[in-house]
Each structure stands twice: as C-alpha cells, then as structure tokens.
Amino acid sequence: MLKPGSHAPELAVETLEGETWRLSERNPENFTLIVFYRGLHCPICRKQLQELTEKLDHFRANGVEVIAISGDQRDRAERSHKDWQLGELRVGYRQRVDSMRDWGLFISRSIKEGEPELFGEPGLFLIRPDGTVYYEAIQSMPFARPPLDDLLGAISFVVKNGYPPRGEA
Asked: Which Gene3D superfamilies match (predicted)?
C-alpha cells in the first residue's frame, strides 16, 4: 500500500511531445499532479481531462506541474488529445500494468468493444518535489472523481499553511 509521506514508485512514460517523462526528474515548485486515466474509451476521463486543461494555468500558478497518463498506445493517446481538445496538457501513454499495480491502481478487464484488454482505473496523486506522496485518490470505478476546484483550493491552503500529509500512520 502506497502511503502519504512514502517515496513514490518510479514512473517513466513516453509523452506525445516525444520525450520520456520521468517522475524522478521532475522539480516543481510545490507538487507534481499525476492524473491516471482509463484511456480513449472513457467519456468520464474526457470530461475530467478537458476540465484539467481549462485549469492548467491555475495549477501552474500554484507551482504544480501536471501530467495525464494512461496505458493506451500512442495512436489512442494522440486521438484522445486531438478529439478531446487537450491543448497544452502533457499526456503520457503506454503505462505498463506492473507500473499501475506499483501505484496501487485498480486494473480492469475489457467488458465491451473499444476497451483495451486490461487498463487502469482512475487515480490522482500529488507528489512533492522530493518524490514523496502527499495526496492520493484511487478509484475502482470510473465515476465520482475528486473535483479539481476543491483540489486547487486545497493546494493553496497546504502551501500557505505548510499542512503535512495525512494518512501516513
């Protein structure tokens, strides 16, 4: 079980910009926000990532670097980015199932056409610049995701007040 305050697992994914994004190389002012999404087949992911795209400037203003990651292959990730109009949102793809498990994500099997054979369910993590987990929200289903405005408000409060991670015991 991945707990707040513990070191985050290594994470390396290819991005649509043609780079290999590594968590260990990130150096945000306050946090790295990692949004694990199910993939192209998920309409709720579309809504979440479109909202995230609209709020990118607010996250950046709070010292937060953002990436959205799925297990989709490049062609599906490109299609999501284009069809969902994700603009400047950095998208990572081809996350391996063993990496999803390292992060504690739930793994689902395909139940309908258009879904990959296996894919990760949603997860949202705030990682401190030192690589430790600050916050995590892991879901076994596609619905009821943490509201991004609430997250932005929490980040402002945390940074202003030096609020420690909770749930570490």
From this structure: Glutaredoxin
Which residues are 20's β-sheet partners? 14
Residue with token string 């969902």: 84
Map residue 109 onto helix, strand or coil: strand
Query: Mean pLDDT over residues 73-93, rounded?
Result: 98
Q: Give DSSP secondary structure letters for 33-79.
A: EEEE---TT-HHHHHHHHHHHHTHHHHHHTTEEEEEE-S--HHHHHH
User: Could you tell me the pLDDT band of residue 57, with boundaries at 50, 70 and 90?
Assistant: very high
How far CA 139 is from CA of 21, 31, 43, 134, 155, in Å, comes to 24, 21, 16, 17, 21
- Per the structure block, which two tokens stand in for 38? 């199910």
CB 26 within 8 A of CB 64: no
d(CA 147, CA 130): 25
CA torsion 77-49-122-162 (nearest 10°) is 130
* 39 neighbors 45 (Cβ within 8 angstroms): yes
Phi, psi of 126 (to 5 degrees): -105, 125
